[in-house]
Amino acid sequence: MNFMKEEFIKKMSFSDEVKKRFIRLSRGQRKVAQLVIENPHVVATHIASEVGKIIGVSESTVIRFCYAMDLSGYSELQERIRKDLSETEKVATKEPIYAGKKHEYLFSEVMNGDVASILNTIQYVDADSFQKATLYLHKANDIYVLGFRQCAPTASYLTSILENLGKKVTQIKFNVEDILKQMNKMDKDSLLFVIAYDSVLEDVLTIAKIAKNKNVKLIAITNSTISPLRDYAEINFVVGAQKQFAFEGNTAANSITHALIEGMMILNRNDYRKCLKCDTLLHYDFNLLEKQSAATK
């Protein structure tokens, strides 16, 4: 492991640790985890029994959550959360990097933020899920890509590369008519690839539910380990870092998408390379025709 990655992991917040273990927790413990992630001040200022009443679980469930997180008990949980909150307040008092019109090191701070986002994403990638996703992409007869608003750039990036590799792929447009049209075409041999961050989840959950009822395979990229899209997706990749705007997760989303494409190509590299070569030649022929046409005018 390189030095940069080691340093980043050392700085992982307790909230990040909870997200990483979220899927292993029981249903009741997940309620405690969600409160820790979304409203840490409540846990930091209330005793275990009160926290249990707030979220509708027993005090013993709250304590079992602590043990599941390798803590000695509720007091240590509060200590970890208070430490996180203290660090957050320190960060909040710093001057934002975009505050001034001129910033000598703006490019390095932004790009280091992108690196941190990608490193954080790596932690949540399960190797078996990654391999399964590449196989789905390789075998799918029809691939549908869904990504609205700030997720659209990654959706377009994925669609473009898959098309260049000879895959039959459709990017679903953000209008009711196209959504219904594409949903009607999907079947058990189709693959729906969804890129959806928290702010657009309401737009895609219904689509994901319909796809699941039609036995469509579903791969998702979200920016939260507790995204409700997890209930419908067979494979879910979590991207980005804490305290990022949703669109800032696109760098990490593009990176995991690139990795998936590379994994898919390994399964039949010769054929995929032939498709890329044909695509390049086709563009060359079109450019040549345009130049000849322009010369005759």
TrEMBL record:
Report the record's Gene Ontology biological process terms.
carbohydrate derivative metabolic process
Which molecular function term from Gene Ontology is one that the record holds? DNA binding
Segments forming domain HTH rpiR-type: 12-88
Which UniProt keywords are present, listed alphabetically? DNA-binding, Transcription, Transcription regulation
Where does the source fall among the domains of life? Answer: Bacteria
The record's section on Pfam families has: HTH_6, SIS
What is the recorded name of this protein? MurR/RpiR family transcriptional regulator
Name the lineage: Bacteria, Bacillati, Bacillota, Bacilli, Bacillales
